[in-house]
């Protein structure tokens, strides 16, 4: 008797041509039926924004000999198109492998990779977001088709984590599992909480040829964070696994708020 493989909707925010996306595809196809529905172009740092003021086009393309859907929109758009237009019924959504880590509350709020997984969970299908640390932050902005970094270790993590979740299911209090893989894996898995910051935020002012100012938001990575956080785990070379919930309610603050607004 043949056993049906579970189905996975695979997406990302680096675009349908990203080497990270297809590394995840290679890792997952032995254990699942994978359908790629991803943005047609680079969509990093768009978070959970959705295209509601313009029409969306979804085009079937062939990448590396495999069929995929390229959506002219954002990662959340790709997930919604996959679920409601292509009528996919995946067991879960996988987003990534993102080129560059998505650590801390700062990053997961803006990450298109995490945003896609959150949107899937919001629509009833939970997901895992995978991100790979890069040593040179400039790699995040290079052509995602040509990153020289090896994905061999990351592929093993993607397959192992996905297999475990497919076999055991998501915890009822977890909507998304945020997985960050160090550029050099030195340890094992570490279940973590979100650090507060990933970057020291700064703004660089420059002048255009006509002497008018313009600005770049920039800043170096934080050196480290406290024990138990995702940032610290990655700095140690561990694979960080952070359970995330869609519910942003601060339950600890509710009593104080009731007193304030009695």
Poorly predicted ranges: none
Task: Please identify the top-level CATH class.
Answer: Alpha Beta
Spatial order of strands in the largest sheet? 3-4-2-1-5-6-7-11-8
Principal-axes geometry comes out as: globular
SS class: alpha/beta
Assign the CATH superfamily.
Survival protein SurE-like phosphatase/nucleotidase
CATH A-level architecture: 3-Layer(aba) Sandwich
- For the termini, the CA-CA separation is 64 Å
Q: Report the order of strands and helices.
A: EHEEEHEHHEHEEEEHEH
Helix content: 25-40%
How many discrete domains? 1
Largest sheet: 9 strands, mixed
Number of DSSP helical runs: 7
Strand runs, count: 11
Strand content: 15-25%
- Gyration radius over CA: 19 Å
Q: What is the third-level CATH name, the topology?
A: Stationary-phase Survival Protein Sure Homolog, Chain: A
Rounded mean pLDDT score:
93
Commentary on this structure:
The structure is a single chain. The protein is 26% helix and 25% strand. By secondary structure, the protein is of the alpha/beta class. The chain has a single domain (7-196, 223-260), classed as Survival protein SurE-like phosphatase/nucleotidase (Stationary-phase Survival Protein Sure Homolog, Chain: A, 3-Layer(aba) Sandwich), CATH 3.40.1210.10. Strands 3-4-2-1-5-6-7-11-8 form a 9-stranded mixed β-sheet, with helices on both faces. Strands 9-10 form a two-stranded antiparallel ribbon. A hairpin with a 5-residue loop joins strand 9 (202-207) and strand 10. Helix 1 (19-28) packs across helix 5 and helix 2 runs parallel beside helix 4 (112-122). The N and C termini lie far apart (64 Å).
């Amino acid at each position: 008797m043949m056993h049906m493989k579970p189905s996975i909707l695979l997406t990302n925010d680096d675009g349908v041509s990203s080497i990270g996306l297809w590394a995840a595809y290679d890792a997952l196809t032995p254990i699942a039926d994978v359908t790629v529905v991803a943005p047609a172009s680079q969509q990093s740092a768009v978070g959970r924004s959705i295209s509601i003021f313009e029409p969306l086009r979804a085009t079937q393309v062939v990448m590396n000999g495999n069929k995929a859907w390229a959506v002219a929109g954002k990662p959340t758009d790709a997930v919604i198109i996959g679920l409601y237009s292509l009528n996919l019924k995946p067991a879960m959504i996988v987003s990534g492998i993102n080129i560059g880590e998505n650590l801390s509350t700062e990053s997961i709020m803006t990450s298109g990779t995490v945003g896609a997984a959150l949107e899937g969970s919001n629509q009833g299908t939970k997901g895992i977001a995978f991100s790979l640390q890069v040593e040179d932050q400039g790699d995040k902005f290079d052509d995602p088709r040509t990153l020289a970094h090896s994905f061999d270790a990351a592929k093993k993590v993607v397959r192992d984590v996905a297999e475990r979740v497919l076999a055991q299911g998501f915890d009822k209090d977890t909507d998304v599992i945020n997985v960050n893989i160090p550029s050099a894996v030195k340890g094992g898995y570490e279940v973590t909480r979100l650090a507060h910051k990933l970057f020291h935020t700064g703004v660089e002012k420059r002048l255009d040829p006509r002497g008018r100012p313009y600005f770049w938001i920039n800043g170096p990575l934080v050196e480290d964070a406290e024990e138990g956080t995702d940032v610290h785990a990655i700095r140690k070379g561990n694979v960080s696994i952070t359970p995330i919930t869609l519910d942003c309610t601060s339950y600890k603050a509710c009593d104080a708020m009731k007193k304030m607004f009695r």
